[in-house]
Amino acid sequence: MTFDGAEVADEQEFLVATNSYRARGGGFSLMPKDTVVFTNTHQFLFDLAEFFGDGRQKAARPLKCPWRFSDLRRTRAVFQTSTKARQHLAEIVDFDPIDLGDNADGFANIEIGF
Fold first, then answer.
1. Cα gap 77→2, rounded to integer Å
2. Quick check: 100 and 110 in contact, CB under 8 A?
């Protein structure tokens, strides 16, 4: 894994933003509890759904985003997905997708830029 073009060292630390399901849902936990910096008991997804809904309802409270993304220019990420995703890469051409082939479990490895 690299960051800013250099290999990531074991002692480097990164702040990862993810949803609650990925962090501790689905019967498994990707993030040890003692490493969580911030958590929110309210599901932000519901605020977003309400805000972007049909416009007839108002949010129950003002939406205040408790986080922000840092500058993602020159940032790339690799994710694993269905091999069927390859037929849709043209739809995300703005993200400069690169097909890295399949992993040992048969998933497609796709690299995208931000």
1. 10
2. yes
Residues 56 and 93 in one domain: no
Q: How many domains in the chain?
A: 2
Q: What is the dihedral of CA 20, 14, 108, 27, to 10 degrees?
A: -30
Q: How far is CA 81 from the centre of its chain?
A: 13
Q: What is the pLDDT of residue 35?
A: 77
Q: Are residues 40 and 9 in the same domain?
A: yes
Which band of pLDDT confidence, cut at 50, 70 and 90, is reported for residue 89?
Answer: very high
Confidence of residue 16 (pLDDT cuts 50, 70, 90): confident
**Confidence band (pLDDT; 50, 70, 90) for 13?**
confident
The boundaries of the domain holding residue 3 are: 1-68
Using an 8 Å Cβ cutoff, are 109 and 80 in contact?
yes
Phi first, then psi: what are they for 111, rounded to 5°?
-105, 135
pLDDT at 81 over 70: yes
108 and 99 Cβ atoms separated by less than 8 Å = yes
